[in-house]
């Protein structure tokens, strides 16, 4: 049962073949069985999840009309607030904090009867590409436990790949949904900026952060996307417009006549040979399904990484100033005679990890007097050029595509002492965040040289997220026909699910 898709689980719930309590217990048992090795979860809410499930079962038994995913379990990235449930953002500075309110995403999940199993591991404050920066230890990739599951949302993607949950929530600032999806053989979607409320999402970079759905199939991601999306007056950046018809698109998968633009700048040197071969194969399958493949150019994408690592740290240096030991969270050095400044300094020294400190320092410098225009101001100009590149390219195609990541999952510890090498993992995903458009990663197969998953990225214009699901569903169907079974059925580790 736990290898089924979320849509299949929902159908069995509606048919009375299983109850939500039984389905939830199956996943809680799976977590207890394998998560010591995977470490996808930071907190498992056994009692709360079963209580939610029982409530859904009672409503179903009473004949109430329920949402499509009612009773299906989900794993929640530990950067979203959930009332009364520990929320750490993977940091010691928030250890033990229990928020007094739900994020809008959590509110929407509860409204739709989706059962929240617990909170998943992540790079501290979503800063990282490997989930090695978590203050609570790394998460392991279920395909190979010696390798990273991507980041910052590696806990959510690993939970899916290990069959600990059929659905998950991630957040994406520069690729933190899509890159973990790519290296774990799962589906991850970064919706249009403002398409899903950021209220209750603990901010890293406010102009880039976006919550989104993580799943094992394109349809599952669409169903979850529809459940969490929509306008929210509590978020000033929330778009007041209808949610794109993502579920209908995922069920259609008809790409006949669509123009798919291959980004020249994201398909060159520096990509692992197996990544490129699986990408080319996917293009051939889309062409066979009736799409027209064209090449498009985005010349300013080469500056995206540098601009991102000025904008994001600048915003994080401001956002993380709130963790000052004065209001909530960790408090160190509070002894008689200690000044507020002393307590703040000691707390931030102990509470923040190395990568977070690195980015706070970088961002503070970029915003400092005399450097603001040269660094942060210039980066914002590059951001405008990247948006213009997308606009120009979308005049020639319906969606743009590229490999999601340059390589498959690397070994834990392999790049932890080389920040630049780590940052380069997001070279293909960052432009989407800079422009605020939608992006999806779905499995494109296994790289022949190492047998590890490869991701295929689809990018769509703002508030045209349904186009990603249309192309994603077409490619998924073609690949499933070619493989003969879901990709995750080939996973060598953690057998027995």
Calculate Rg over CA atoms.
Answer: 21 Å
State the fourth-level CATH superfamily of the domain at 6-258 and 438-490: Amidase signature (AS) domain
Annotated CATH architecture of the domain at 6-258 and 438-490: Alpha-Beta Complex
Average residue pLDDT: 95
CATH class of the domain at 6-258 and 438-490: Alpha Beta
Portion in helices: 25-40%
Oligomer: single chain
CATH fold group of the domain at 6-258 and 438-490: Amidase signature (AS) enzymes
Total beta-strand segments: 11
Biggest sheet strand line-up: 1-3-2-4-6-5-10-11-9-7-8
Largest sheet: 11 strands, mixed
Counting helices, strands and paired strands, the structural category is alpha/beta
Beta fraction: 5-15%
Measured between the Cα atoms of the first and last residue, the distance is 8 Å
Overall description:
Helix 7 packs antiparallel against helix 8 (246-252) and helix 10 crosses helix 13 (373-394). It is globular, with a radius of gyration of 21 Å. The chain is 39% helix and 12% strand. The N and C termini lie close together (8 Å). It is of the alpha/beta class and 497 residues long. It has an eleven-stranded mixed β-sheet with strand order 1-3-2-4-6-5-10-11-9-7-8, with helices on both faces. The chain contains 16 helices and eleven strands. The mean pLDDT is 95. Strand 7, helix 9 and strand 8 form a beta-alpha-beta unit.
């Amino acid at each position: 049962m736990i290898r089924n898709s979320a849509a299949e689980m929902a159908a069995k719930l509606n048919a009375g073949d299983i109850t939500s309590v039984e389905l939830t217990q199956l996943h809680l048992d799976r977590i207890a069985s394998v998560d010591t090795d995977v470490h996808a979860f930071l907190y498992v809410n056994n009692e709360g999840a079963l209580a939610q499930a029982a409530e859904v079962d009672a409503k179903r038994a009473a004949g109430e009309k329920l949402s499509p995913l009612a009773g299906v379990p989900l794993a929640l990235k530990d950067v979203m607030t959930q009332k009364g449930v520990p929320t750490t953002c993977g940091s010691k500075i928030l250890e033990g904090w229990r928020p007094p309110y739900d994020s809008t995403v959590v509110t929407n999940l509860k409204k739709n009867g989706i059962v929240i199993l617990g909170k998943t591991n992540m790079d501290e404050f979503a800063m990282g590409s490997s989930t090695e920066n978590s203050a609570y230890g790394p998460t392991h990739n279920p395909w190979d436990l010696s390798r990273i599951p991507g980041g910052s949302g590696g806990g959510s993607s690993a939970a899916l790949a290990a069959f600990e949950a059929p659905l998950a929530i991630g957040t994406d600032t520069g690729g933190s949904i899509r890159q973990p999806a790519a290296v774990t053989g799962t589906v991850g979607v970064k919706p249009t900026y403002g398409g899903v409320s950021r209220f209750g999402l603990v901010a890293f970079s406010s102009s880039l952060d976006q919550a989104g759905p993580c799943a094992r199939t394109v349809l599952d991601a669409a169903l979850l996307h529809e459940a969490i999306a929509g306008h929210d007056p509590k978020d000033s950046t929330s778009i007041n417009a209808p949610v794109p018809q993502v579920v209908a698109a995922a069920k259609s998968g008809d790409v006949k006549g669509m123009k798919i633009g291959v980004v020249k700048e994201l398909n060159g040197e520096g990509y692992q040979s197996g990544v490129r071969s699986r990408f080319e194969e996917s293009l051939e399958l889309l062409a066979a399904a009736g799409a027209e493949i064209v090449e498009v150019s985005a010349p300013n994408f080469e500056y995206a990484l540098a601009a991102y690592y000025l904008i994001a740290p600048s915003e994080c240096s401001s956002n993380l100033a709130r963790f000052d030991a004065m209001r909530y969270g960790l408090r160190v050095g509070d002894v008689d005679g200690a000044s507020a400044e002393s307590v703040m300094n000691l707390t931030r020294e102990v509470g923040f990890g190395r990568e977070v400190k690195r980015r706070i320092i970088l961002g503070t410098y970029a915003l400092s007097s005399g450097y603001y225009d040269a660094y942060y101001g210039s980066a914002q100009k590059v951001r405008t050029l990247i948006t213009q590149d997308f606009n120009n390219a979308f005049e020639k195609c319906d969606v743009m595509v590229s490999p999601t990541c340059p390589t498959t999952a690397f070994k834990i510890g392999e790049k932890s002492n080389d920040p630049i090498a780590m940052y380069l993992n997001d070279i293909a995903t960052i432009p989407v965040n800079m422009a605020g458009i939608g992006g999806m990663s779905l499995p494109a197969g296994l790289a022949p040289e190492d047998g590890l998953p490869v991701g295929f990225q689809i990018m769509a214009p703002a508030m045209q997220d349904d186009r990603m699901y249309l192309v994603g569903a077409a490619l998924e169907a073609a690949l499933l026909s070619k493989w003969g079974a879901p990709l995750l059925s080939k996973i060598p580790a953690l057998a027995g699910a």
